[in-house]
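Hi team,

Below is the intake form for Heme exporter protein C from Vreelandella lutescens. Please confirm the fields before the structure is written into the shared record.

FORM ID: S-0412
PROTEIN: Heme exporter protein C
ORGANISM: Vreelandella lutescens
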Amino acid sequence: MWAFINKLRSPKWFYAISAKLQPLFWVAATLLLGVGTVWGLAFAPEDYQQGNSFRIIYVHVPAAFLAQSIFVSMAVSGLVFMVWKIKVADMAATVMAPLGAAMTFVALFSGAVWGVPTWGTWWMWDARLTSMLILLFLYLGVIALRGAFSSRDSGSRAASVLAMVGVINIPIIKYSVDWWYTLHQPATFTITGRAAMTMDMWAPLLMMVVGFYCFFIALTLTRTRSEILRREANKRWVRELAEEAN
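The structure came back. Fields below:
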């Protein structure tokens, strides 16, 4: 683990290793999302209560999972940056934030659309919905903090602290349906427990969830590589890469 952390201190090493990993995750994301979408929308059976409206689950659940996971990843990256001063961790956290905010918005919007046929309303100040809305504000706060300081390091530290403090909202989101009375249904997707749906409905959902995570990793690697080139533009190895490309 310590050897890996020491390697992360080198943006050049991360740039090289990510070049090998990036295509694998893009291919996996494309295949899983393509098959999962077609299977879930066209071949999975209707829900016996909600009919075809339940199919929004194939976007809503993966987006909600990813929104929470990205914020945890940002908090961990912020901790690594603050403790070990590893620049690549801060670069990764920088590029994660917009995707996390987008996934949170997708989860909220798809949930609102799903709520109309299920609850009869677009929005309720439900514990799960409210805590997800707070998550969106936390993402926007992290993004805003990075641009609020004249010094990039000061902005990075402030954003890291907010991410580490704001991560307390993640268990609130997860357990809100257990701690408070809520209209939101309990978890319909779990790896460790018994599935709350039949296998022909659960399998495409699993593919979508894994596909979303592969997409997240692929996009993070791609954008972190771009961020490395931007921040390390004056380094010799970057100039050599530019010369080779030309």
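SUMMARY LINE: The radius of gyration is 20 Å.

Thanks, M.
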